Amino acid sequence: MSKIKSSESVKVVVRCRPLNRKEESNGPAGGIVQMDLRLGQVILRNPRAPPSEPQKTFTFDAVYDSSSKQRDLYDESVRPLIDSVLAGFNGTIFAYGQTGTGKTYTMQGVWLDPEKQGVIPNAFDHIFTHISRSQSDKQYLVRASYLEIYREEVRDLLDPNHGNTRGLELRESPETGVYVQDLTSCVCKSIKEIEEVMNVGNQARAVGATDMNEHSSRSHALFLITVECSQPGPDGRKHIRVGRLNLVDLAGSERQAKTGVQGDRLKEAAKINLSLSALGNVISALADGRSGHVPYRDSKLTRLLQDSLGGNAKTVMVATLGPASQHYDETLTTLRYANRAKNIQNQPKVNEDPKDALLREFQKEIARLRAQLNHRRWRSKQKKEQMDGEAWERDGDEEEEEVEEEEVEKEAEEFVKLEEQRLEKENEAIREDQFLLAEEKQRLLGENEKMMGDLRKRQEATEQLTARYKAMESKLLVGGKNIIDHTNEQQKMLEMKRQEIAEQTRSEREMQQQMLIQDEEAVELRDTFTSLQQEVEAKTKKLKKLYAKLQCIKAEIKDVNDEHVRSRQELEQTQNELTRELKFKYLIIENFIPPEEKNKIMNRLMFDPEEDQWKFKPLVPDKAKSSQMKKRPASAVGYKRPISQYARVALSMGAHSRYRAENIMFLELDTTPPNTSALTDGEQNQSPSLNISATKDKGVCKFRSWCQSQKSITSSSSNNSLTGCQTPTSAVAM
Ligand code: ADP
Ligand code: MG
Hints:
734 residues; alpha+beta; 3-stranded antiparallel sheet; 21 helices; 19 strands; binds adenosine-5'-diphosphate; binds magnesium ion
């Protein structure tokens, strides 16, 4: 599957938005962020620090200041990535930063303004323009999906019922890596269609949230595009390359503690933070390079981005900043985060001929429909030629088949028409024939009618087949054919020039950065001094420079320590909250849930490693198991029901009807003493059971089971004694 395997680092670019009106009126003039576009550096000033304190400098692959254009960012930093996706690589772009710093602006932008369109619309344009301009032997299939992760739940934004159903599950396969099970994916044939998909998803996102801004800053949105491309290889066979593009707009990275949330909101915040802090941990672990374990499984987001961070993908991270001084801490954190991400190494490779390529299935289905259609048409043609009296001979030659296909289609249509005309004529002739009997006429007309019906049915079936074939074929985009290319040659040239300029800027920046590093290293080598005075001056200068650097690093260490302490305090606070909640739940369990119920629940619990959580085992065992349990016991083989040993022996001794069925009763003789007293009317009423047994055959009574007779004995004897006592008293009273 892998063709090119090499390692490359995650590209990190930083973008700063302009000051907004509120910030302009509040804060001091200008922001705290300065950018050196040529060197790709961000210089951050601490508004609370004395002016003597050195400013913090970070270097990135590219930086974009407040006056930067959407198009520049795309051409310089995103275009190469999309080109890779079109060549069959996996690609990811994610925007990271505090809420309100321009993540959504960068990813989506203003749709209706071509100048302000963000990465996503530009990528749509890029992909479909590329397809329309590629050679006609290439076939493409483009699919899009849209999902969001909200409160650690994956929701399909293209599923109309996504609000009612439970979150989707993540699965992993060696072929495609981690994927979302049952995620809707739409085949898109044009820019318009894929934009429609995006709109539907955005609306679903807006409907699900009461306050859109609140919601969007708390959920992570992922727009996924799969581009499959089939092209004949040198071996003459068609090879498929699959590129997957993830466009990710992350939730705001601000600290939730700042906003003072509590209760349910805190839980929600903890869950957003869970994903983001898990992302931070993954980035740290990868950037560190020493720790063997990377905690991808800690959150849904990191699992989904597993390939994009340290795996098979090319990744661009856009870190967004606000220039306002009140957000200094956040800005610094974002910059540190981005700085760390630079060190992540990915191993991108071309996905060639994966087993699950949908394009292959589409091609097979199209070929099948085409064969079916051709078969029908050939049959019609054959019949027509037989009618015409020509000898029909089918040529197996492939090329001729291609050329003749249209001719066959035409002839097949002609055949249908001719056949219809022939039947009409026959009908006419039958009606006018005076020598035929009325009955015979009716029969012949009926037959013709039936043939006509058959013909129409066949025609309809062929039409349906053609429609299906055409619909299927239209889903595949063929290079240079399906989409009308609006751009003329001049525009194409312009684009190429822009691309070249972007490429040049990029390489210039890289060279500048290299030079800076080399400069620092080579300072000592270059210095030769003519006088002692000069040497002192030069060394003092160097000392000052190094001292400044030392101060910078010291400040950095202090900052990192402070940050560490702060995040530790926050974690402790969260831990306290969670411990309190846990204690509360324990208390409920101890006091309100009976121990046996608790045990039952405990016994049913099992850990699902796939989902990384505890689940209940099903109450009803599997079908396979239950059928096993229903197996007949060995003692009952050949009998209707289990049967006692005694009954079996008795049955084998002779065919006495008494032992035909089971016998589970006690067969001892009845121990009831014979009742010798005469029964009165009153007694009969008081003990109906005794009455029945007494009036019936006494032998039956003797064969009663021990339990039954015992009962009847006690009841009858007590009755007897009662009546026995009563009779004399009543006699006395009388
Ligand atoms: P986020 O998604 O990070 O919460 P948004 O993208 O919604 O932030 O941006 C917040 C506001 O700032 C929006 O009104 C947006 O138009 C504006 N904005 C962000 N970045 C820029 C930029 N580079 N140029 C002009 N306006 C911007
Ligand atoms: Mg946003």
